Amino acid sequence: MDSAKPANVVQLDAHGGLRHLLTLDGLPRGQIARLLDRAEELREQSHGGTRTLDLLAGRTVINLFFEPSTRTRTSFDLAAQRLGAHVINFDIASSSTSKGESLLDTVHTLEAMHCDAFVVRHKESGTPAYIARHLHSNAAVLNAGDGNHAHPTQGLLDALTLRRHVQDFSTLRVAICGDIRHSRVARSDVHALRALGVRDLRVCAPAQLLPDVDEFAHCRLFEDFDAALDGANVAIMLRLQKERMQAAIPSEAEYFERFGLSTQRLQRAAPECLVMHPGPMNRGVEIAGEVADGPRSLILEQVGNGVFVRMAVLAELLAGAASR
Ligand code: CP
Fold first, then answer.
1. Are residues 11 and 143 in the same domain?
2. pLDDT tens-digit readout, 37-53
3. Is the pTM of this model over 0.85?
4. Close Cβ partners of 108 (under 8 Å, ≥ 6 residues apart)
């Protein structure tokens, strides 16, 4: 991938408005809060998603998922449909990608048929920004997760979910635990939570899955999960991303023993501690089933909020723009 301009520059127009959504890195608190407010407005206007709006009538959104997804892909699809847009779920496996067509030739081919937005997931960090830099049209690019770089709508939906339960982010103690090194969710969550005022951010992983210190400069890094969880109000658990790993990792049983969130271990956190997980979960590896399904779990709320956040982002990028 070329690296001419970073994602946080490519995504802005000349006036600092959002042209694409590629990362939460550098997005100011006001811009993030406005997207969350818009998600709540769209929740209300769509009667909780049961009424279709016509904000994006006549617009076409193409889902380009080069990696598997359940939540992100389905909720982007529903979000676009509930705003009245036409959605194409591009099937990579049966596309001409398998005949060797390049990424950009694929994108330019789809642009030639006219579309207003590409929702892109790819295993290579930087792919959505690369596409955004090489578009032939005014289509918007929405990052649905690229490598270990960013998953901005997950960061937004996690922030929205927390905001529905917590008044004051500045007093929160948030522990993010799991495969931090490979996690685009951890990176986007940290950007969102810092922007919204969280000061006590702790990230915890086995040594070989901790990130470079510079990248998480505003967080405290832990290898001891009990210490990271001590007094936490929020525990965000992450999956071991074996598909991205080279280093040896502990067995699943050993991992759960040291880094799994069990009912017993949750007692180290604050009594009201909220439990989150972006999914997909590996029960019995990073989280016990009874915690995932327990009274402090927000996991399915996160999923539901994903649709409204994605409606808000699509509306922000597409509804305001005249003819793209
Ligand atoms: N949280 C998340 O990105 O889940 P999917 O991989 O199912 O989209």
1. yes
2. 999 999 999 999 999 99
3. yes
4. 136
